[in-house]
Amino acid sequence: MTKTTLEQIRSLLKQAKHPVFIGGAGVSTASGIPDFRSPQGIYNVESEYGVPYETMLSHSFFMAHPDQFYDFYWKAMVHEGAKPNKAHIALAEFGHRKRLPIITQNIDGLHQMAGSDIVYEPHGSIRTYHCERCGKLYELADIPHQGIPKCSCGGILKPDVVLYEEALDEEVIENCLAELRFCDVLIIGGTSMRVYPVAAFPEYMLSGKKVIINAEPTPYDSACDYVIHDDIGKTLEYILGVEND
Description:
By secondary structure, the protein is of the alpha/beta class. The protein is built from eight helices and nine strands.
């Protein structure tokens, strides 16, 4: 990607009336959070439990084996020391100057920690939990980060993460599609665009330009106006104008 092209994208974003960002696991890898589907991702590592990790992140496995689920969950899904990286910070700083809705497939809460105000989480979040028995809500900071967390009523707490076999929140999906309907510049970053329904979200745009930033080629590259295979943090800092602020 030439500097001239990056300048074109930067100019588009300055002029944009309704920019939107869609991000995936690649946004958070620089924060020390592993992705799922790359060759080194969680789903491609041999499970120490004798059950594929992808299976362990299903609702039925959670219900049948909450002890094994949480043993894996605390090790692989909750990264207490993780901090926002250049990508999160660049998006948040741009969002303070111009409204920037963020649709993230991640569940780590790092966009909010970086200061982004408009964050949609179709796959849920590790930051909140609810009791399967009485429905009482808890924050991550309020529960032990080991073993099976229990409610004051004795019920098992479930993370507000959308597991396999569970439906996504319809209100969140509708809000995402409403943002995209009138989007004039869409930035897609750090995602393989293989996971649905989020991978289909860009099709709801009525018009506008699409930019994709990912370390590796994706099936969606051909549908975009600009394709960048480079470091997402460095690229976002540049095209969002953060490095010169």
